[in-house]
Amino acid sequence: MPAETPGPSVAFHGITKRFREGPPAVADVSLEIAGGCFVALVGTSGSGKSTLLKTINRLVQPTAGHVSIDGEDVTARPLPQLRRGIGYVFQNVGLFPHLTIAENIALPLRIAGDAVGDRVGAMLDLVELPRDIAGRLPAALSGGQRQRIGVARALVANPRLMLMDEPFGALDPVTRDSLGGAVHALHARLGLTTIMVTHDMAEALLLADRVLVMRAGRIVADETPDALLAGAGGDAAQALVAIPRGQAERLAQVKAAR
Ligand code: ADP
Ligand code: MG
């Protein structure tokens, strides 16, 4: 059941972020992401992906430029109100080890002073985990299960925009694959706008509607997966596409040799 209205649009207007002297971490990025889109932001380590992502929920304050969500500047509202509309999943999940799974999931609601009600159970259903793990501590879960809890917590306050920073980075390939599929299904079912940072081009090609490639703080390619697979996007993008393609070709050769 897709939501009637898709998630919000997000626009970067001339975003530059400079942490210190020398080249900026993000250099004059302008682009618009349509509501309901699943965008992957891909690039090698240090290319500025996380910094750009964090300008949306104001974890990073741009040196120049501004970000808007559905046309409204992100600084227009008080921070808690802004963040409430944005789910954020990050690499090391950041579950609180001394809080139970239920307490971790409910945290954004508690911070906002909202009723928890049956939301914990509903979120466990959503991320396809059994409700009876609610009383456990994070240490009693597998890495993939913890990552699902991170997604559940990000979505508990019904945000329409989901930001994910290398959400599957620390997982084994099988778990990574199944969780990627699950996140994509949630994105579609809830009608979210999703922006996912990843260094893995294969993941981007499989999950996203649109792939942005960053290098040295700039967006150097902005293409659909089909276009990238057909050779578009320039050298930096094609160097990243070459990695999964090379793996697929080597696998095909192994198969042919048997
Ligand atoms: P990515 O997510 O693509 O790996 P980041 O956005 O984390 O890249 O970092 C881009 C650049 O900005 C890097 O050179 C990094 O060292 C620098 N950087 C990121 N965050 C900070 C910070 N809080 N203070 C100083 N430098 C930072
Ligand atoms: Mg990063």
Report the C-alpha radius of gyration, rounded: 19 Å
Give the overall form: globular
CATH topology (fold) name of the domain at 7-79 and 162-170 and 192-258: Rossmann fold
Strand fraction: 15-25%
Query: How much helix, percentage-wise, in residues?
Result: 25-40%
Number of helices: 9
Structural class: alpha/beta
What is the count of β-strands? 10
Which small-molecule ligands are present, each listed once? adenosine-5'-diphosphate, magnesium ion
End-to-end Cα distance, whole Å, is 45 Å
For the largest beta-sheet, the strand count, sense and barrel status come to:
6 strands, mixed
Would you identify the CATH H-level superfamily of the domain at 7-79 and 162-170 and 192-258? Answer: P-loop containing nucleotide triphosphate hydrolases
How would you describe what is shown here?
Helix content is 38%, strand content 22%. It contains nine helices and ten strands. The protein has helices at 49-54, 79-84, 101-112, 119-126, 143-155, 173-190, 201-207, 225-229, 234-257; strands at 10-17, 26-33, 38-42, 64-69, 72-73, 86-90, 161-165, 193-198, 210-215, 218-223. It has a six-stranded mixed β-sheet. Strands 2-1-4-5 form a four-stranded antiparallel β-sheet. α5 packs parallel to α6. It is globular, with a radius of gyration of 19 Å. The protein starts with 9 loop residues before the first strand and ends with a helix. The structure holds adenosine-5'-diphosphate (ADP) and magnesium ion. Magnesium ion binds next to α1.
